[in-house]
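Journal club side-thread
Mid-discussion, someone asked how the predicted structure for our own chain would compare to the paper's figures. Pasting it here so we can look after the session.
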Amino acid sequence: MKEPSYATNERLPVCLVGNRLTFLTPHMLCIETGGSMLTIEFPEGYSWDGASIPRLCWPLVGHPLEADLRLASLVHDWRCEHATTPAERMVGDALFLELLHTAGLPRWRRVAMWIAVRFYSLLCWRAK
């Protein structure tokens, strides 16, 4: 595995395969948040579908694979896939909100997206 990259709105080493972004090589990502460092290792072939935005909302909120949403959606999907408790899921949702802010999204847009993930978390999400 290469040296870690530090999370910014950097270009992630991914390729579009179908409608999913896929890592072609293993990748380590470091995210500084709240004074601590979070490190995530993504295996070769890990993929995600970007932000889960219903097609009807794309004109207002944006396309799911938009560059400004990639880092936040990647970290959120990874954290939620590995969450085993509602509290761990809530941490993933909080990181999503913080990374949307770091990406420079307008407040109305990041709050709307965060409300959507919290709504899903509270009503639909179940630990695997």
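Post-session note: Strands lie at 5-6, 14-17, 20-23, 27-33, 36-42, 47-48.
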